[in-house]
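Exercise: predict the structure of this protein bound to zinc ion.
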Amino acid sequence: MTTAIMDNSKFFVYDGPRKDVNYPIEVLYCGECTMPVEYCEYYPNYERCKIWLEKNMPDQFKKLMAGKGDENLGSEETEEKKKRQTRGGRGVIKAKKKTEPQGLKLSTATRGKKKRVTIVAGLATYDIDLKEASKYFATKFSCGSSVTADEIVIQGDVKDELFDIIPEKWPQIDEDNIDDLGEQKK
Ligand SMILES: [Zn+2]
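Solution:
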């Protein structure tokens, strides 16, 4: 017995001849993928293997298909199943994106004739209440600040200060998560 030595590489454990197997073992190779037929299902073109097996080794094919449940279904139904799985997967990714912090984007713009404003976008993705944040900025800079859609517009150009103030007020936002988009073009 070699089991003890081979403990770390169990894929190659050889336990000696098995009583339920007739020796020498006849390995059946697939004419489509050239692998032993047991490995066909790992071949990307498994569907073509199946066709080859069904034609050339009908007995073997039946054995391989036995007990596979759903895979015995017509290919149309299998396709439908795959599609459904893919759809579910995409949904999960989307939902995750929504709650993940997206980073902040700061920019400045000119409103009216010579009025400069600073626009803060992305705070909501950190679950920060925009109204409260807007109030905080207004107090901090002694200026007007308002919430429009998912952005905060602060009167005046305070962008440089924000790089220090935001991570200080909300430690979950790192300075590296804040992008400077510069001046917004109309
Ligand atoms: Zn094959």
